[in-house]
Specification:
The chain has 77 residues and is mainly α. It has one domain. It contains 4 helices and no strands.
Length: 77
C-alpha cells in the first residue's frame, strides 16, 4: 500500500474510533450521567468532544430506530 493510501486508512480508522467513543458518550448522557469530566475520562475524549457529542442533532435513523422499538413493544403487549 502506498504512503498516501496508508495515511487515508489511518485517518479513517482514527475518525471511526472517535465516532464510536462519541456514541458511547451520548449513550452515557442519555442514561443520566451528566458529569462531562466523568464522561470524558470514561471515553478518553476531550471535554469539547463530549460536549459536541451530547449537543449535536442526532441523525434521523436514531429516531426511527426508537420509533421502531416502540412499535414492537406495543405490538407485544
Amino acid at each position: 500500500m502506498c504512503e498516501t493510501m496508508q495515511k487515508i486508512v489511518d485517518r479513517e480508522r482514527d475518525d471511526a474510533a472517535i465516532k464510536a467513543r462519541m456514541d458511547i458518550a451520548l449513550s452515557l448522557w442519555s442514561e443520566g450521567e451528566h458529569d462531562l469530566d466523568k464522561i470524558a475520562k470514561t471515553t478518553k475524549l476531550s471535554i469539547e468532544q463530549v460536549r459536541r457529542a451530547v449537543t449535536e442533532v442526532q441523525p434521523v435513523y436514531f429516531s426511527k430506530k426508537r420509533c421502531w422499538q416502540w412499535q414492537i413493544i406495543n405490538m407485544v403487549k
